[in-house]
Amino acid sequence: MTFGTRLAEAVAGRGRLCVGIDPHPALLDAWGLTDSAFGLEKFAMAAVEAFAGTVAVVKPQSAFFERHGSAGIAVLERTVTAARELGTLVLLDVKRGDIGTTAQAYADAYLRPSSPLAVDAVTVSPYLGMGSLDPFLDTALAHDAGVFVLALTSNPEGPQFQHATTADGRTVAGTVLDAVATRNADAEGLGSIGAVVGATIGETRENLDVAGPLLVPGIGAQGGTVDDVRRIFGPAARNVLPSISREVLGAGPEKRALHEAAQRAAEAFAVLDG
């Protein structure tokens, strides 16, 4: 079963919300946990258990695990395994991007089923050229995994690169979105290659219908709303996967409170299914 198909089924059964697992120091402290591998594991496992059966996707931010060294990576492995065993899709936010054998090594690390860090999908950066992402895309499709390519991001620095025009007059973001759509052209149903498009980008003339999922950060604490998503994405809103972290994680550390916060956020976006 392709990632696109698994994602569509998860959304149909649990709603379209993606919740980040971002154990940054301030949140660990707010939860009464130490900024250590021990605190990291307590945080991550509470989130995994609270969100199981409630959200379609969890999105661990790899950097917050990596900052604890090998012990943090071990916690990340256990977090991924636990989430997948509970039936939750895992999108690992790693934003990798490289060339040749290095790109292939990253792809093998996250997208080959035999890897201890194998996940359902990853985020990648295309700014070494879309061709540099071929190892990620080919490996993902070969193993029924997914890839989300940064296109129009929610950070204020993004437009400097993303709105720049190429020799043929298209924007860089437009070429990325077109390339994603091309990769999904032969997919049955929802494609497995997605794009990352922020909820705070304002107006855009780009074609956001890439025939695959659209990961939409910038929701909640960053200012993005359901109305923004409807206005920006139009008909493509049917493929939106809104991503939220701080507003839900701030309800912790009690699992019931986390669960209820995720439910409220998921219900807010149920209007996109109408």
UniProtKB/TrEMBL annotation:
Domain annotation Orotidine 5'-phosphate decarboxylase: ranges: 16-261
Superkingdom field: Bacteria
Lyase keyword on record: yes
GO BP terms: 'de novo' pyrimidine nucleobase biosynthetic process; 'de novo' UMP biosynthetic process
First-level EC class: lyase
Pathway note: Pyrimidine metabolism; UMP biosynthesis via de novo pathway; UMP from orotate: step 2/2
Active-site residue list: K95 (proton donor)
Catalytic activity from the UniProt record: orotidine 5'-phosphate + H(+) = UMP + CO2
EC number: 4.1.1.23
Pfam families the record matches: OMPdecase (PF00215)
Keywords for the protein's UniProt record, in alphabetical order: Decarboxylase, Lyase, Pyrimidine biosynthesis
UniProt GO MF annotations: orotidine-5'-phosphate decarboxylase activity
InterPro entries linked to this entry: Aldolase_TIM, OMPdecase_AS, OMPdecase_type-2, OMPdeCOase_dom, RibuloseP-bd_barrel
Alphabetical list of Gene3D superfamilies matching this protein: Aldolase class I (3.20.20.70)
PANTHER family on file: OROTIDINE 5'-PHOSPHATE DECARBOXYLASE
Family as reported in the entry's similarity comment: Belongs to the OMP decarboxylase family. Type 2 subfamily.
Name of the protein this chain belongs to: Orotidine 5'-phosphate decarboxylase
Classification of source organism: Bacteria, Bacillati, Actinomycetota, Actinomycetes, Propionibacteriales
UniProt gene name: pyrF
